[in-house]
């Protein structure tokens, strides 16, 4: 089997971590809007957010290629300003993982926010607290378990992302090859032993992270 290249593991953890941070920031904002605001198009926004859960990853990857490719407005802007392309980079893998993991965080966070008693928030406002202060000091602590659960699911989903990542980031060893893609390569080349080792590593890491998040939630509870 030879020496095992751990770069795919490092890249997967890096991509999943950054994607989870992005998903947390964007997803929490969307979840709050869906949980607290009524507006025209709310149902459409909810549908768009949920769409990555039901579309095939390759379809999502194609949409991302169209959105950030060199001929797209975003792609031309990034290349013109920064002199780089987004496709076939590890940054594209972060974007793909973020897109597929956001729905899990949004759904979990939205449910948690909807379960927060609005009278408690209103009571805090009558004491002179701003909306931001109420959200940080009242809403978040009460909804934290659901938000943390969604964050854990988002990380696990990002860690295991394959199809969309392969479409927009490619399979470049030492640059964009994540663990799921490395496992696919090992299976395709007939290296079953290497595939078993890589699968075992990913499984252990995923279980460890989920147990850590579960323990954190229990301590906070």
Structural description of this entry:
With 221 residues, the chain is an all-alpha fold. It contains ten helices and no strands. Helix 1 (7-36) runs parallel beside helix 5 (90-114) and helix 2 crosses helix 5. The protein is globular. The model has no long low-confidence stretch (mean pLDDT 91).
Keywords:
0% strand; globular; mainly alpha; 221 residues
In total, the number of strands is 0
User: Distance between the terminal alpha carbons, to the nearest Å?
Assistant: 46 Å
Structural Rg: 20 Å
Helix content: over 70%
Q: Extract low-pLDDT stretches.
A: none
Q: Which class of secondary structure composition applies to the elements?
A: mainly alpha
Q: How many helices?
A: 10
Shape: globular
Q: What is the residue-averaged pLDDT?
A: 91
Largest sheet, if any?
Answer: none
Based on the structure, what is the oligomeric state of the protein chains?
single chain
Strand content: under 5%
SSE order, as H and E?
A: HHHHHHHHHH
